[in-house]
């Protein structure tokens, strides 16, 4: 039989992230026994999906992931999303304008299956998604030293490739800067263009030389190696990160340990320190503070915290009436201190985030011959006969005083975890998920069958399109909104508008290289844009419209201003004879007499007078700070094209705004910069 090839899209190549180890690397190792080859995908490229039988997106919530999922579905590669956290709580935020839950829900609309780590999380996901697709539960596997070493080797090639890519990106930046400046050369004379070209090539050469020199210079590597040596030596000697100051080091390594006896029993808590979105992490120890302090009065104890936030430890844990030690988390330190532990504690706040946690820390402790006292969660019920649940005081006391009882639980636990979480079990579960998904996946999804596609690329587009989108939806037309990745990143408000519309949407890369007519689904009939010309700011929509024309779709664009370049306006920068509009028709606001006298004949023939699209009703917008004030408020809106005015007029305008505000102190003047403008914003720091 032909080997299957699975792509695993990850959000990081950092082995410290538990989800990378448990949800990617362990399954990849487990699936090798089933003759399934895996490819780890971090940075997207044109070959990311080549040769794949299925794509698995693992706890990654970017617009690139959404784009990749769409591309996979388009070529018939089923998409599986793996989730190990409750991302639906309100405080769970991402780094982008769209939250992780919003990205996940959009991907779930086209995914063939979802995999989660626990039963509670499966129930939550089932309530949140809008489609009836399979949801599988695959627990976290057992993490051993041998598995960690194999996992490191799996990451070697992806990490090397990523390092090389980052180096190339540094070289690429000056090229992009040159490209941006070239866009203005169409207004210059041939001699001016040549001078500008030479100037930019010299600048690029200098930049490239500086980057190469940095990597070749011995001081760069010396500093890098010293930083690595210093950081790891401090961790080795003290168990404390090197960023701490000497006072911190003396307090934790001397004062807290003077009273410790070598025979002290060691209670270990390990894990991430926590996050703002939920009540979990290191502060869970405060739940059992009373029990720990009571036992410390009876027995010689030491609480060892292996985590990643010394400041939090010092503020909340160190003041407890029990000798404590902080150890900075690494894979090596984790193994070392688990082997020294007499018992591991895993308290849990049982909030809506924490109750979905897997059993991986309990499994890791038992696999290292350490008994566990924990708060009962659904994920731990299968292990209830080999750990102590919900009784920290008596559980700790018995494990510490009765080594036979502890060893009995550990032996029973290791038998159970091998059966429930071993590589063979994880491999069987994932193999079943992949087999079922590939054999049953289909594209019977109405959201993938738009008839009318609206293109948005600039923030001003969403001032023109809403009435048209609303009307189309009222007529029962299946619509979709397509935007560019670059635009959504630059203007978060644009991304928020797109995802708030009650229709399907899709994000595409700004660069259309490699994209062909197959980007459009067979259901599509027409493509509508708000700003479409051959000018650089409109290149995204222009490229897609040309592809739509090649695909035989009807294309149209709408005039987006009374003075529209290429239609009703011309100047030395945007000469009307050089402007090209690819759409079949152009809907203009005024009559045909409003067109510029020099408009090309081909462009004039495309124009149809329809008026300016406006919504039926407009909600009142309240501006913070001015709501309900008796003073008049006058808005001044910036024009995008400052080059249309002389420097003298521009200076006169700014001075006049300042002067009129001084003359009328009883009036508030509100200046609104243009969404895509930089002239006024750059002069007034936003």
Concise summary:
This protein has 686 residues and is α/β, with parallel strands linked by helices. It is 42% helix and 14% strand.
Helix share bin:
40-55%
Strand content: 5-15%
Distance between the termini: 61 Å
Question: What structural class do helix, strand and pairing data support?
Answer: alpha/beta
Folded structure, characterized:
It is a single chain. The chain is α/β, with parallel strands linked by helices. It contains 22 helices and 21 strands. The strands form 4 sheets. The chain has a 7-stranded parallel sheet, sandwiched between helices. It has a 6-stranded parallel sheet with strand order 2-1-3-4-5-6, sandwiched between helices.
List keywords for this structure.
single chain; 686 residues; alpha/beta; seven-stranded parallel sheet; six-stranded parallel sheet; 22 helices; 21 strands; 42% helix
Please render the helix and strand layout as text.
Blueprint: E1 4-9, H1 18-31, E2 36-41, E3 54-58, H2 63-74, E4 79-83, H3 100-108, E5 113-116, H4 119-128, E6 135-137, H5 145-182, H6 190-216, H7 218-238, H8 246-255, E7 265-270, H9 289-298, E8 301-307, H10 310-317, E9 324-328, H11 331-340, E10 343-346, H12 360-367, E11 372-374, E12 388-389, H13 392-401, H14 403-421, H15 423-440, E13 452-456, H16 461-474, E14 479-484, H17 485-490, H18 492-500, E15 504-508, E16 526-529, H19 539-550, E17 554-558, E18 585-588, H20 601-604, E19 607-609, E20 633-637, H21 647-663, E21 668-672, H22 679-683
Parallel strand pairs: 1-2, 1-3, 3-4, 4-5, 5-6, 7-8, 7-10, 8-9, 10-11, 11-12, 13-14, 13-16, 14-15, 16-17, 17-18, 18-19, 20-21
């Amino acid at each position: 039989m032909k080997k299957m090839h699975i792509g695993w899209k990850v959000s990081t190549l950092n082995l410290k992230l538990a989800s990378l180890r448990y949800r990617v690397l362990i399954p990849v190792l487990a699936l090798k026994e089933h003759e399934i080859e895996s490819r780890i995908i971090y940075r997207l490229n044109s070959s990311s999906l080549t040769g794949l039988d299925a794509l698995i997106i693992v706890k990654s919530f970017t617009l690139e992931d959404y784009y990749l999922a769409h591309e996979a579905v388009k070529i018939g590669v089923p998409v599986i999303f793996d989730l190990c956290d409750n991302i639906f709580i309100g405080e769970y935020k991402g780094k982008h304008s769209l939250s992780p839950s919003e990205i996940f829900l959009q991907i779930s609309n086209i995914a063939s299956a979802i995999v989660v780590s626990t039963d509670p999380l499966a129930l939550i996901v089932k309530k949140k998604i809008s489609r009836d697709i399979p949801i599988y539960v695959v627990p976290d596997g057992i993490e051993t030293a041998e598995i960690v070493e194999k996992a490191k080797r799996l990451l070697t090639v992806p990490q090397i490739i990523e390092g090389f890519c980052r180096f190339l990106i540094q070289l690429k930046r000056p090229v992009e800067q040159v490209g941006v400046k070239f866009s203005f050369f169409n207004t210059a004379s041939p001699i001016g263009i040549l001078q500008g070209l030479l100037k930019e090539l010299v600048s690029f050469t200098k930049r490239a030389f500086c980057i190469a020199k940095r990597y070749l210079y011995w001081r760069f590597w010396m500093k890098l190696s010293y930083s690595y040596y210093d950081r790891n030596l401090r961790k080795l000697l003290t168990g404390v990160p090197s960023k701490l100051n000497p006072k911190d080091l003396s307090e934790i390594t001397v004062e807290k340990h003077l009273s410790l006896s070598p025979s002290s029993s060691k209670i270990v808590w390990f894990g991430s320190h926590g996050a703002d979105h939920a009540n979990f992490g290191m502060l869970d120890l405060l739940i059992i503070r009373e029990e720990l302090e009571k036992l410390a009065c009876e027995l010689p104890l030491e609480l060892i915290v292996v985590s990643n936030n010394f400041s939090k430890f010092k503020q909340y844990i160190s003041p407890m009436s029990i000798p404590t030690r902080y150890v900075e988390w690494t894979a090596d330190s984790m193994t070392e201190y688990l082997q020294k532990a007499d018992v591991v504690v895993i308290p849990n706040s049982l909030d809506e985030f924490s109750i979905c946690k897997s059993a991986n820390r309990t499994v890791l402790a038992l696999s290292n011959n350490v008994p566990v006292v924990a708060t009962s969660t659904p994920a731990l019920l299968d292990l209830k006969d080999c750990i102590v649940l919900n009784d920290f005081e008596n559980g700790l006391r018995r494990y510490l005083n009765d080594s036979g009882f502890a060893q009995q639980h550990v032996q029973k636990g290791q038998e159970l975890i091998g059966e429930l979480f071993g590589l063979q079990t994880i491999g069987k579960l994932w193999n079943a998920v992949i087999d079922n998904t590939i054999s049953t996946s289909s594209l019977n999804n109405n959201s993938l069958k738009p008839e009318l596609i609206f293109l948005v690329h600039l923030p001003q587009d969403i001032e023109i399109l809403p009435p048209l989108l609303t009307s189309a939806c009222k007529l029962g037309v299946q619509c979709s909104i397509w935007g560019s990745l670059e635009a959504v990143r630059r203007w978060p408000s644009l991304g928020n508008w797109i995802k708030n519309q009650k229709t399907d949407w899709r994000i595409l890369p700004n660069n259309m290289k490699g994209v062909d007519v197959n980007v459009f689904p067979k259901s599509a009939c027409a493509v509508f844009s708000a700003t479409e010309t051959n000018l650089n700011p409109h290149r995204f929509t222009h490229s897609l419209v040309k592809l739509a024309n090649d695909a035989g779709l009807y294309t149209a664009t709408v005039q987006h201003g009374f003075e529209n370049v290429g239609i009703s306006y011309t100047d030395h920068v945007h000469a009307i004879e050089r402007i090209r509009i690819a759409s079949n028709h152009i809907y203009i606001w005024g009559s045909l007499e409003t067109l510029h006298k020099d408009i090309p004949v081909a462009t004039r023939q495309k124009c149809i007078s329809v008026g300016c699209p406006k919504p039926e009703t407009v909600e009142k917008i309240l501006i913070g700070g001015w709501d309900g004030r008796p003073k008049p408020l006058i808005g001044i809106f910036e024009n995008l094209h400052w080059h249309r005015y002389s420097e003298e007029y521009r200076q006169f305008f700014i001075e006049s705004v300042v002067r009129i505000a001084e003359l009328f102190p009883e009036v508030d003047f509100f200046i609104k910069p243009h969404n895509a403008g930089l002239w006024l914003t750059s002069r007034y720091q936003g």
